């Protein structure tokens, strides 16, 4: 889904983000359309919630796509159980999708929903604590019967006992209305009930003036092999729209204007982190003029990359779904030896299994991109929840001195650029590279400005084509570990090139020749050389955003960028001076990081772990970096983070 924005670049007032989660009228406040009042808002946060089989992710995704095509800025937070079909009607089985969209630039999916769509009692109970008083709640009354309510601990009906009096509750018999709308299709009751999510989507699309044509086209394409089901879903969608238009319970609809001030002119599309990362890898292979090879084993939340790349054979992409994690990275490393841009994708448990082969890649000094979509751990942990707890594993999770560069994207769209950056480092310095995304970025989405091809970096690597060393007797030979003076990268020789036969492997090599060597001095030299190669990788300096000469710096990495930036904006709006810096490169750190940290009296590091970056910063720069941590499987909320940062400033 793409949309063209032709307005000049602009940024929303920093005070806007300070009001995230508030529903404010703009200008005159409202207009009228027929008999229904139309109220104008600058932002809305909607959460769809129901059983994992109710189609909440599909519903949220379609609403997001239409919102993107309309031109709003947006940010999403899918949240679902790890089970393929979690127990129906239970709290652990609730699936939700939160969407924050606005007429200006936004940074997070929002702290609290303005509208909750609850498909059953479990969805209401699991989410009501996040809903502020005065917000709107749309409930499927058909599900509020004695047994479903008792299953989640309701002793009385919350729709009748006054417990929701502080909210604007809209009771809607979604199931009954959907079945009634689909009578003509001759479906069973169970089949018809499955379309109630489309009825809800139609109602919300009317409520917020979302386009409808693309959703109808999507449904017809998705169920092309079952045209009756396709038309039934379209009918349910239209019935939901018409219900909003005609019922007296919804007297007000809302408009959120396109975010024309938030974007530079260009063509945009809505994109998730995993999709952006996939496109970034494809772009990197094209810019490097190399085939892309993915050796992978399915694992949540990284599997979408394998699914996406398998669709692009026309771009020279080859995907191999291996029998296990070790085979996946082994195949990828073999492809790197053969001259491909090689990638392996996984999550934390898979990194543990791949660690020996990553160490082998360090010894072989071959380019390999290792994509780790982090999730909650340890062990199997929380497969569908987010965490940033693999940083120390990426840095040190191998035997011996085996340094590996680490790159981390900060937003879903930034995953595209991070993939290009990781490929640049791998190809230029002949090294495996970690790309640390996480579940929040992988499944979340935002608008992405589609770049022009001439804006992409040139990543072409030079293969060795002939001898590179002359022996004392004048004989010309090929030395596989003779290094580039600037990058310390060894030559990349494609197997089968005449005269370039050479030996590589996991046993220590003699510098230059590549012959097996157990010499202590040579091993010391090789270890220090491999470390120096990583230390000298060219990465941009880190920039501190500090308009007020603050004494406190907030240092972040990866997906904490949005919540940190939103919290910093709030504090500045309230008059608190605070600086912010965010790291893309975690190994090596930017060369000026120590100088930046030394400017501040306090350094606060918010992380979704127990303080891993703070530990690294304290050890390397001897600064009193203080951690603010969270490991509940969810991203930081801007309001809570702002409160913690203010306490740190005042301490």
Could you please describe the fold and organization of this structure?
The protein is an alpha/beta fold and 651 residues long. 35% of the residues lie in helices and 21% in strands. It contains 21 helices and 25 strands. The strands form 6 sheets. A 7-stranded mixed beta sheet has the order 13-12-14-15-17-16-23, sandwiched between helices. A 6-stranded mixed beta sheet has the order 5-6-4-7-8-9, sandwiched between helices.
Give the uncertain stretches in residue-range form. 1-33
Helix content: 25-40%
| Intertermini distance | 48 Å
Strand order of the largest sheet: 13-12-14-15-17-16-23
Binned strand content: 15-25%
Q: What form results from the Cα inertia axes?
A: globular
How many distinct beta strands?
Answer: 25
Oligomer kind: single chain
What's the total helix number? 21
């Amino acid at each position: 889904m793409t949309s063209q924005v032709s307005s000049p670049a602009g940024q929303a007032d920093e005070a806007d983000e300070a009001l995230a989660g508030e529903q404010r009228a703009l200008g005159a406040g409202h207009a009228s359309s027929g008999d229904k009042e139309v109220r104008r808002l600058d932002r809305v946060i909607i959460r769809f919630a129901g059983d994992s089989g109710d189609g909440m992710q599909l519903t949220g995704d379609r609403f997001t796509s239409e919102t993107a095509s309309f031109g709003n800025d947006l940010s999403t937070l899918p949240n679902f159980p790890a089970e393929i079909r979690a127990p129906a009607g239970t709290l652990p089985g609730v699936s939700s999708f939160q969407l924050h969209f606005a007429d200006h630039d936004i940074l997070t999916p929002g702290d609290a929903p303005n509208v909750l769509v609850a498909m059953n009692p479990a969805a209401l109970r699991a989410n009501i604590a996040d809903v502020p008083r005065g917000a709107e709640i749309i409930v499927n009354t058909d599900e509020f019967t004695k047994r479903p309510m008792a299953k989640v601990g309701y002793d009385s009906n919350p729709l009748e006992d006054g417990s929701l009096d502080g909210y604007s509750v809209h009771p809607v018999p979604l199931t009954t209305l959907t079945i009634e709308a689909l009578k003509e299709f001759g479906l069973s009751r169970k089949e018809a009930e499955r379309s109630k999510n489309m009825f809800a989507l139609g109602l919300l699309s009317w409520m917020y003036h979302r386009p409808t044509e693309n959703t109808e086209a999507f449904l017809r394409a998705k169920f092309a092999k079952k045209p009756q089901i396709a038309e039934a879903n379209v009918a349910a969608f239209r019935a939901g729209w018409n219900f909003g238009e005609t019922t007296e319970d919804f007297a007000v609809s809302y408009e959120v204007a396109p975010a024309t001030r938030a974007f530079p002119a260009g063509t945009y599309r809505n994109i998730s982190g995993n999709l952006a990362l996939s496109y970034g890898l494809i772009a990197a292979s094209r810019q490097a003029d190399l085939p892309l090879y993915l050796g992978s084993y399915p694992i949540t939340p990284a599997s979408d990359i394998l699914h996406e790349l398998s669709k692009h054979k026309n771009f020279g992409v080859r995907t191999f779904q291996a029998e296990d994690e070790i085979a996946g990275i082994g195949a990828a490393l073999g492809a790197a030896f053969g001259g491909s841009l090689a990638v392996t994708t996984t999550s934390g448990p898979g990194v543990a299994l791949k660690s020996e082969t990553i160490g082998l890649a360090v010894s072989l000094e071959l380019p390999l991109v290792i994509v780790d979509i982090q999730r909650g751990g340890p062990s199997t942990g929380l497969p569908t929840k987010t965490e940033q707890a693999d940083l120390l594993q990426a840095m040190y999770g191998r035997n011996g001195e085996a340094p590996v560069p680490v790159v981390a994207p900060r937003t879903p769209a930034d995953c595209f650029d991070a993939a290009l950056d990781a490929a640049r480092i791998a190809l230029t310095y002949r090294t495996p590279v970690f790309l640390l995304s996480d579940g929040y970025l992988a499944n979340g989405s935002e608008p992405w400005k589609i770049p022009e091809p001439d804006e992409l970096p040139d990543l072409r690597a030079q293969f060795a084509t002939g001898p590179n060393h002359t022996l004392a007797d004048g004989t010309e030979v090929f030395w596989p570990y003779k290094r580039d003076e600037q990058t310390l990268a060894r030559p990349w020789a494609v197997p089968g090139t005449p005269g370039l036969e050479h030996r590589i492997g996991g046993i220590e090599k003699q510098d230059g020749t590549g012959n097996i060597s157990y010499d202590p001095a040579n091993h010391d030299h090789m270890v220090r050389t491999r470390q120096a190669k990583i230390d000298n990788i060219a990465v941009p300096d880190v920039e501190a955003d500090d308009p007020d000469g603050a004494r406190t710096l907030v240092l972040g990495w990866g997906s904490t960028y949005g919540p940190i930036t939103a919290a910093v904006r709030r504090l500045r709006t309230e008059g608190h001076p605070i600086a912010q810096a965010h790291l893309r490169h975690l190994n090596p750190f930017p060369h000026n990081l120590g100088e930046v940290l030394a400017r501040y009296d306090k350094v606060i590091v918010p992380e979704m772990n127990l303080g891993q970056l703070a530990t690294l910063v304290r050890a390397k720069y001897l600064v009193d970096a203080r951690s603010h941590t969270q490991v509940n499987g969810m991203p930081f909320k801007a309001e809570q983070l702002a409160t913690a940062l203010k306490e740190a400033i005042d301490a």
